[in-house]
Fold this sequence. Notes:
This protein is an all-alpha fold. The protein has one domain. The chain is about 95% helix and about 0% strand. The termini are far apart.
Amino acid sequence: MLRNLIRTEIAHQSDLFTEKFAKVDIQFKMLENRTAEQKEDTMNALTAALTSQKEAAASQTISLQKNTDKSETATIERIKAVETLLSASSRASDDKIDDLKSRVVAIEAVKLGNAEGTATIHQSGTDTRAIIATIVGVVGVLLAVAGFAIAIFKP
């Protein structure tokens, strides 16, 4: 009887330990499941963050390309405008220079005609006309150069 009682007690204690170990085992499994869920959640969050960053970088690249294209277009338009302005200024300066050349030629023709007719009498008048013509020519050329410079540096 004592043996039976001891065996019963040992069996009872064995059942209690088995039950406690089963509960501990369940807790370990629950902890493992929670850890696995946390890892999965962390991986999902990391994947979402990386995907979002990738999309943001792609969007930023597209935006930067658009801005670069706009800048290039504006620069090309400005260059074309400057070319047009320079061409117009060049034509205007060429026209003014041609006009001044024809005036100088006309003045020189007048000077030569007067010099042949009245070489000694009108010598001083002819010299004065030549000086005036030269001054007018130089002033005209300076005005043309100034106009050209203003046209180039005008904003």
